[in-house]
Specification:
The complex is a heterodimer of chains A (427) and B (252). Chain A is mostly helical. Chain A is built from 15 helices and six strands. Chain B has a domain of 171 residues: Rossmann fold. At the A-B interface, helix 1 and helix 9 of A face helix 2 and helix 3 of B.
Chain lengths: 427, 252
């Protein structure tokens, strides 16, 4: 016991005397979680508040053009630009500005677009009421297509482009319905003179009610903070692998490991003391990031993190995640022969685990093969556990499978390190 | 331990590293008696470090056996490790810790504690002239001071058998004298010393017996004075060493 305590104290002294290393261990995760949550908050709000500039060339100057213009302005997502220095933007100018990356999107509404839609509506009505001659409705049966051209910056994200397209489709279809209804109403008035034509009135006949499904009476609302804090906390906690592996390699390079291996019972003792100290560090990182979610992010205008009532489950899950990370650090530090090897391999491996674990892209949108691989990422296990607690009001029993996987991963990593040492003895 | 039992028995020891077809140690046998100062001498890559590493329990041999005080590493690894002390060639200490903190940590690993440990640390620091700088971090020490503290870390628990891998390399004359003088005293108190060095004059004066190793084989072995006396063409150990191992440059 004295050996273990003395080893822990030694690791503690080594750690606190490396001021720069200590600052990196605690400040970098803090910076990471702040930046990532703030960035992702924008995407979470589906580009709302982002106020993205967009070119609109309205050559129609009729109902369609006006409907699109009004809709885009009222959406609050976009800032509409129609002139450059007082000069009305032409299609060529719009194309060039978007190609140069100055604007994400340029919308060109062609001349007589409204007239074309109107014609199409009339054609449909004429087809329906062939026998009547409706004065307000021109005789026309031929349909024409309206080509709204949208210039897109190649750097524009797929989701943003889709969001704009869906808004445009909504505006045009609303206009079509409005025109159809108006002309249909005129036709009916002609057929039944006693009947007064009614004005088109927009009415939402179908309403959508969003309810976050929960098996409990949880009042936790999903938001960017609830999603991002656990995700980036897991990511940052796993970065403990790098200083821990570096610590093991440094001890070997400086010769202390040689001395320790010639001393009674010291290898296992020293490894456990390292695991203990770095586990404490990773737990402190976890607490620090919870504090960010609880106090700093709300001060920056973001929602406050809701921890939920299952704090013991949360703590045990954090410890399991920390153990998985330290186990990986011990294995990498034991096998890697240089700092360069451990830092490159360790960092890339964590990024792969994070990508597979759904830190950046949700697992459900991944291709089938990737979804299979993601089942083997410890970051996925940890993150699923945190989501269970933060978003689904999960308890200790709910997160037990994830905790067991993380602890199993820790045990496997330790066995790899011990096995490698044994092989190295007989090399 | 039986009377007259060697403290180290090496029987047909061979080590071939994985991926190499040349043995680093080739079927060597050796007995070292308690109380000896035994020198393992040889050019770079001769097999000295491999031999010491096996004797310290760091590597398993490919063939042959090693007995330390009648015990082998397969059955009594922990017991052997508690009676040996190792002074590696590298400064095997934590640079950000003070001398006292380093020694306290290593002392605890050897099972020393409380007053016994602090008294022993103070005694050693005083012996090696480091008592005034005991609370300074190792990274602030000079080369000679680091070497002395490196030595203390290996002898703190009063081991029966001490492995010294070039303990005086790169230090000034004063530090070298202090180190060798205290090692002689430790030997007089009963400890057996296994010593490697490239300084032939130092080895000639310091060792009771030496073995000259080259390419994994023991070329010659005996008391330095006897070796020189029996080979009249050599005026000292160095000329004999050069003759036996050749003048060609060696790399590790």
């Amino acid at each position: 016991m004295l050996r273990l305590l003395s080893s822990i104290y030694k690791e503690f002294l080594v750690l606190i005397r490396d001021r720069a290393g200590l600052a990196i261990l605690f400040l970098m995760p803090l910076v990471l979680i702040l930046i990532m949550t703030l960035i992702q908050d924008a995407t979470f709000k589906t580009v709302k508040d982002a106020n993205i500039s967009m070119i609109l060339v309205n050559n129609d100057r009729d109902s369609l053009g006006e409907a699109i213009r009004k809709g885009l302005i009222e959406s609050d997502f976009f800032e509409i630009v129609e002139e450059f220095d007082g000069v009305k933007i032409t299609e060529e100018m719009a194309k060039e500005a978007v190609a140069q990356g100055k604007f994400k999107i340029g919308i060109i509404i062609p001349e007589r677009a409204t007239e074309a839609i109107r014609g199409n509506v009339n054609a449909l009505i004429n087809k329906s009421f062939k026998t009547f001659d409706i004065p307000g409705v021109k005789k026309r049966t031929k349909k024409s297509t309206v080509n709204i051209i949208i210039y897109i910056d190649p750097a524009t994200s797929y989701s943003f482009k889709n969001s704009v397209m869906s808004s445009l489709k909504e505006f045009t279809s609303q206009l079509e319905i409005k025109m159809f209804f108006k002309n249909f109403s005129l036709a009916l008035a002609e057929m039944f003179p006693d009947q007064k034509a009614v004005e088109f009135e927009s009415f939402e006949t179908i309403k959508y009610q969003e309810i976050y499904a929960s098996t409990t009476n949880s009042e936790i609302l999903p938001n960017s903070v609830q999603h991002n804090v656990p995700a980036w906390t897991m990511f940052a906690m796993f970065f403990i692998v790098l200083p821990l592996a570096g610590n093991i390699i440094k001890e070997r390079d400086e010769g202390s490991a040689f001395r320790l291996k010639t001393m009674p019972g010291s290898y296992v003792t020293v490894m456990f003391s390292k695991i203990f100290i770095f586990l404490v560090v990773s737990f402190l990182q976890f607490l620090l990031m919870l504090m960010v979610g609880l106090y700093i992010l709300p001060a920056m205008g973001l929602p406050q993190l809701e921890i939920g009532p299952h704090k013991i489950a949360l703590a045990l899950l954090a410890i399991s995640s920390g153990l998985a990370a330290t186990g990986l650090g011990v294995a990498i530090g034991t096998i890697a022969t240089t700092h360069e090897q451990s830092s490159t391999f360790g960092a890339v491996l964590i990024i792969i685990f994070a990508a597979l674990g759904g830190i950046w892209v949700p697992i459900y949108v991944m291709p089938h093969t990737m979804r299979i691989f993601s089942q083997f990422s410890p970051l996925n296990w940890g993150l699923s556990g945190f989501y269970d607690i933060f978003l689904r009001n999960g308890n200790l029993l709910t997160v037990l499978p994830e905790m067991m996987k993380l602890l199993f991963f820790f045990a496997v990593m330790l066995m790899i390190a011990i096995g490698y040492n044994k092989i190295h003895r007989s090399k | 331990m039986q009377e007259n039992q060697p403290i180290i028995e090496i029987k047909h020891l061979t080590k071939i590293y994985r991926g190499s077809n040349k043995p680093a140690i080739n079927n060597i046998s050796l007995d070292i008696q308690p109380g000896e100062i035994y020198g393992l001498l040889g050019p770079n890559g001769a097999g000295k470090t491999t031999t010491i590493s096996i004797l310290c329990g760091l590597f398993d041999p490919t063939a042959g056996n090693v007995f330390i005080d009648g015990m082998d590493y397969t059955h009594s690894s922990e017991k052997i490790k508690s009676i040996i002390g190792v002074v590696p060639q590298d400064i095997a200490l934590y640079p950000s810790l003070t001398a006292k903190e380093n020694l306290t940590f290593f002392g605890h690993l050897y099972g020393l504690k409380g007053k016994n440990l602090s008294n022993r640390i103070n005694e050693c620091l005083e012996l090696f002239g480091l008592e005034k700088t005991a609370n300074r971090k190792i990274k602030t020490y000079s080369g000679g001071m680091k070497r002395r503290i490196n030595l203390i870390a290996g002898i703190l628990h009063k081991p029966k058998l001490i492995f010294l891998d070039e303990p005086t390399v790169g230090v000034d004359v004063q530090s070298r004298n202090v180190i060798l003088e205290h090692l002689r005293n430790i030997n007089k108190e009963g400890a057996t010393l296994i010593y490697t060095s490239h300084y032939m004059e130092e080895a000639e004066n310091f060792c009771t017996r030496v073995a000259i190793i080259d390419e994994g084989n023991i070329i010659t072995e005996g008391r330095p004075k006897d070796l020189i006396k029996n080979n009249k063409e050599y005026k000292d150990l160095e000329s004999m060493f050069l003759h036996l191992t050749g003048k060609a440059l060696r790399d590790e």
